[in-house]
C-alpha cells in the first residue's frame, strides 16, 4: 500500500473513528446520539463557510442536555466536504425555487466575495442558496 494511503487511513482513524469510539464508550443514549447527528448534519451543510461551527455552538447552547455536543461537532466536521460540494446545487435550486436571476460563478465574483466587496447580486445569490437550506429537514 502506498505511503499516502497509510497516512490518510491513519488521519481518518485519528480524526473520525477514535472520537466516535470515545463518544460511544461514554454511554450516551442512542436516541440522543441520533438526534445530535441529525442536528449536526442539518447545520453542517449550511452554504456559508465558517458559519456552521457557530450554528452548531448556538444549537448546543439552546438544546443543552437534549443533545450530545461532541456528536454535533464531530458530525459538522465530517459533513464539511458535503457542505462544500452542495454550495452550487443549493445556489442553483434556490434560484429556481425563488425565481431569481441566474448568477454567473466567475473567478471575479468569487474574488469580490473573498475580499468583502460583494455587490447586492452576490448577496442575493447567497439568499437564494439559503432558500433550499430552510427547506431541508432538521
Keywords:
138 residues, 2 domains, mainly alpha
Shape: globular
Mean pLDDT: 79
Rg result: 18 Å
Number of DSSP helices?
7
Biggest sheet character = none
Which ranges are low-confidence, i.e. pLDDT below 50, for 5 or more consecutive residues?
none
Structural class: mainly alpha
- Report the helical percentage: over 70%
End-to-end span in angstroms?
A: 40 Å
Order of helices and strands: HHHHHHH
Strand count: 0
Domain DUF2062: 20-119
Organism: Carex littledalei
InterPro entries: DUF2062
Pfam families: DUF2062 (PF09835)
Task: Describe, in plain words, how this protein is organized in 3D.
The chain is mainly alpha-helical and 138 residues long. The chain has seven helices and no strands.
Would you kindly provide a brief summary of this structure?
The chain is mainly alpha-helical. The protein is built from seven helices and no strands. The relative contact order is 0.12.
Topology:
Blueprint: H1 3-25, H2 30-44, H3 51-63, H4 69-78, H5 80-98, H6 107-115, H7 120-135
Amino acid at each position: 500500500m502506498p505511503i499516502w494511503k497509510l497516512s490518510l487511513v491513519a488521519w481518518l482513524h485519528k480524526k473520525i473513528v477514535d472520537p466516535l469510539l470515545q463518544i460511544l464508550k461514554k454511554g450516551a443514549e442512542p436516541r440522543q446520539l441520533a438526534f445530535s447527528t441529525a442536528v449536526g448534519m442539518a447545520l453542517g451543510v449550511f452554504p456559508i463557510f465558517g458559519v456552521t461551527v457557530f450554528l452548531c455552538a448556538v444549537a448546543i447552547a439552546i438544546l443543552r442536555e437534549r443533545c450530545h455536543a461532541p456528536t454535533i461537532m464531530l458530525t459538522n466536521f465530517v459533513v464539511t466536504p458535503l457542505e462544500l460540494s452542495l454550495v452550487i446545487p443549493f445556489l442553483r435550486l434556490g434560484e429556481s425555487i425563488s425565481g431569481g436571476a441566474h448568477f454567473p460563478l466567475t473567478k471575479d465574483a468569487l474574488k469580490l466575495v473573498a475580499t468583502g466587496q460583494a455587490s447586492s447580486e452576490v448577496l442575493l445569490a447567497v439568499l437564494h442558496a439559503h432558500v433550499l437550506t430552510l427547506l431541508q429537514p432538521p
